[in-house]
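Reply to dn_fold:

You asked what the input looked like. This is it:
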Amino acid sequence: MTADLPKPKLTRENLREAATLISYLRPYRGILVAATAALALSSLLSLCFPFLAGSLMDAATPGVPTRGPGWLPHHVNTVALLMLGVLVVQAASSYFHSTSMTSIGQSALADLRRDTYARLICLPMTFFSQSRVGELNSRLSADLTQIEQTLIMAIPQMFRQTLLLLGGIALIAMTSARLTLIMLGAIPPVIVLAVVFGRKMRRNSRQAQDKLAETGIIVEETLQGIFNVKAFVNEAFEIGRYGRSMDSYLRVALHGARLRGGFIAFIVLALFGSIVVVLWSGATLLQSGRITIGEMTRFVLYTAFVAGAMGQFADLYSQLQKAVGATHRVRELLREQPEFAVKMPGTTPAATVPRHALRGEVEFRDVHFRYPSRPEAEVLKGISFAVRPGEKIALVGPSGAGKSTIISLLLRFYDPQQGELLVDGRPAPSYPLDWLRNQMSIVPQEALLFGGTIFENIAYGRPGAGEAEIIEAARQAHAHEFVSAFPDGYQTLVGERGVKLSGGQRQRVAIARAILKDPAILILDEATSSLDSESEGLVQLALDRLMENRSTFMIAHRLATVRRADRILVIQNGMLVESGTHSELNQQENGLYRRLAELQFNLTL
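and this is what came back:
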């Protein structure tokens, strides 16, 4: 799948995206400058060590003429103490740099994680309908972790090794130009090979990250559907599916390991081969008296510094290539356009936001709709109807007729390709999207609770609501009785997706959440389908009170639950085929509603 990915190019767009990521370091630029200065100081002090080591050797060798600067002490003890002083200062600067860069990297990545999550959660439903949860989770975990490691470790080390490389080359050139030329002969082939291997490693890194994301998708889907996995005894099937995905990732990862291993092996051979030649040449010069033992020691140590820096570049370059792949995937997410800008608590609402609540008047006017993921199938075909404020509307019809799609359009998860949706006589897109959805509340067929307490799940309907309001909402939903029976009451943990509560209990918590929101438009999607007969009667009374003076849309397959509706809309194949009350529709011979009722109740009405 990823083999045909285009090669990243240095374009203006990429530079702007890189600048966006770098901007996360801007709030920490003061400590970043200090940390960079500490890193530079530590690197420069590292370069002083070989020079002092050479001076120590010369000071310890009788009869060797002094060739160092006049200010440099030439007594063994003095030079040794100076070396210890340099090491202490270097250790302190290294500690400051390490802790500062970790703090900067963690803080910047925390900001990036928050912004990425905020962008993700505000994306439209069209994005989520074409994405998989495991892949999105991989972007928030594995990809951002890779970027974090690059910011904290790879980039500072790249800067440090560059200083050591350039400083080491300059200092050994001052010692012996001949030996320097021999050593530098290994650099050009390394650079050429780095370019060639870099392209292959970059592509391999992208492939490996995509394959790893695929394994994450399988884990996510399996754990979310663990009930079905267990019920169908498909543990072996899922293990095999995960194993095949992991084998695919392993093949790509091992290929990348061979690429990196070959690159590093070449560097080791080129650099240390040149070091052998340098040592042989240096030994010849030492025998002839053209350099001192101290200069030879100095040169060998600087050569080791340069070789070590060059060797580090191979691994650092590989890490940067991985970060390029991770950054590209995160940038793709950050480029997506959100539905609306989230107004954080304490901000002033925009002047364009209407101050009044909706009356609840809704009109679908010749609405045609196709899902973006299935453009070939027209789901709604010219739907037209109007709902008066406070009217209770039931949507019935066969599965796949388009009932849930009407609700999705009402919530503006999607917009129609043709036709118009009006709310209180105004086009729905003319309202701020977040404000419009705040005027609606939904009780779904399968109530999804978050893994917190019952109190928190009810409060989700209106964050910031008081305890008394939450308890009153629970009373109206007939949830207070069973909640009070728990040892921890409203602080009872519901477990992931509410697994610690029964289906009926979860449904009543969801109804309490909707009651707390106090919406202008209420949506009931088979809201009582999970309840036993006794609970259904109690909750239906609560729903009757909740529906008073509110426009209500009820989706129901159980026709007994829609008899109280003011009007029933019968949907078939994306079209409105019948409209009327329960009694009116039952009187239509050969009508769809009558046939559905006969099938369900097994009698002729």
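DSSP finds 19 helices and ten strands in the chain.
Hope that clears it up.
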